[in-house]
Amino acid sequence: MKESQEPIPHLFRCPISLDLFTDPVTLCTGQTYDRPSIEKWLSSGKSTCPVTMQRLHDLSLIPNYTLRHLIDQWLNLRHQFDVDPSVVEIKHNLVSQETTFDIKIQSLEKIRSLSHLKPWMNPSLVQLGFFQLLLELIFVNPVELESMTSRDFLKFVEDALFCVTALLPFSELSFLNFLKEDSKFESFLIIFELGNDSIKMCICDLVEAISRCEETKELCIQIGRNRKYLQELLHLKTEVSLKAILGLCSCSESNLQTLIQEGVVQHLISYIMSNTKKRGRNSFLSEGMSAIELMLRTESGRECLMKDINGINALVRMVFRVCDHEGSESAVDSLMILCQHSLQAREEAICGGLLTQLLLLLQSQCSGRVKTRARMLLKLLRSTWIEDTKNGKTV
């Protein structure tokens, strides 16, 4: 794009072509692409999602009418938008040193209301600099944090982070690299530690976005090697924190190893055990299984899972869930990895009811690939059973 033109918001760019969407369509992974780009990708024989690299159990392309409507609104707005004096006043109130926290919070509430009631305005708010401004106001130097009234400032941070997460999809994420500065990163850690659950969840959304952007990979690695942050993250035990964990795991091998050392395998096993009995599809269980599968590709990850008394049982539970075949696929692949490396894992899986789970899965409506992997796992278990029978051992 020419410098004189308004840049395309991040959300409006196809992840493959990096151009403005012309016909946005969504895959079963929830990722959206421009139809010509994703059709070219699939026609080349690939069966994964380009962004997440998850295997596609369904190749359907669902038109994203909501995003198309927002793009149309934005295209009209960038030609018609005149800066509302009230928006200018809001920005002035946020920047001014003389403005009280009460007025700043009121200003944030107006921005929050505007971004919620008129979402097509978000790209223009980003163009007016609100995304960068809010981040700079949130992550101030630690010395300044000490001088502020804790309750007022945390209320301000909470409201500001809600606005940031609303503007996040439309913003250039490379700006977040300012958090790599020592003072800003320390502020990031302090706010996450002292913040309430709402603040922590917003920061988890921020971390998940950082992990998906190649330009912020160094920042993601910096976050992933900070044990203080990881410990707070694991204690949070929410679905949003699970997304942040998966993002950090997917970002780099060093992050993966650090998370394993901090006990993330046990954390995920505990989450799965407490949620598999709940009805309905839980996409976060699938993401948890994806994270476990990544960790089991390392020796340290396999050791941690085998030491957990519920480790094998949790994976077996995830093999067949009527509402979640995506999680089943990761569970089967995870058990395949374990059983290939450990006779003990095979025996525990058989005793835990894996054979029944696999047979139920083969009779379900899951994808052909999942059924193929299930048959391979059955064959591996059968060879174990035959060998044990020859040796006179009962499993």
Distance between the termini: 66 Å
Helix content: 55-70%
| Largest sheet geometry | 3 strands, antiparallel
- Low-confidence spans: 1-5
Strand order of the largest sheet: 2-1-3
- The CATH class of one domain is identified as Mainly Alpha
Describe the structure in your own words.
The structure is a single chain. With 395 residues, this protein is an all-alpha fold. The protein has helices spanning 35-43, 65-80, 85-95, 101-117, 122-127, 130-138, 142-147, 150-167, 182-194, 197-212, 217-224, 227-236, 239-251, 253-261, 264-275, 283-295, 299-307, 311-319, 325-341, 343-351, 354-362, 368-390; strands at 24-26, 32-34, 62-63. It has a three-stranded antiparallel sheet with strand order 2-1-3. A hairpin with a 5-residue loop joins strand 1 (24-26) and strand 2 (32-34). It is globular. Mean pLDDT is 84; it is low at 1-5. Functions as an E3 ubiquitin ligase.
List keywords for this structure.
Leucine-rich Repeat Variant, 395 residues, Herpes Virus-1, 3 strands, 22 helices, mainly alpha
Layout of secondary structure:
Layout: E1 24-26, E2 32-34, H1 35-43, E3 62-63, H2 65-80, H3 85-95, H4 101-117, H5 122-127, H6 130-138, H7 142-147, H8 150-167, H9 182-194, H10 197-212, H11 217-224, H12 227-236, H13 239-251, H14 253-261, H15 264-275, H16 283-295, H17 299-307, H18 311-319, H19 325-341, H20 343-351, H21 354-362, H22 368-390
Antiparallel strand pairs: 1-2, 1-3
GO molecular function: ubiquitin protein ligase activity
InterPro entries: ARM-like, ARM-type_fold, ARM_PUB, PUB22/23/24-like, RING-Ubox_PUB, Ubox_domain, Znf_RING/FYVE/PHD
Protein name: U-box domain-containing protein
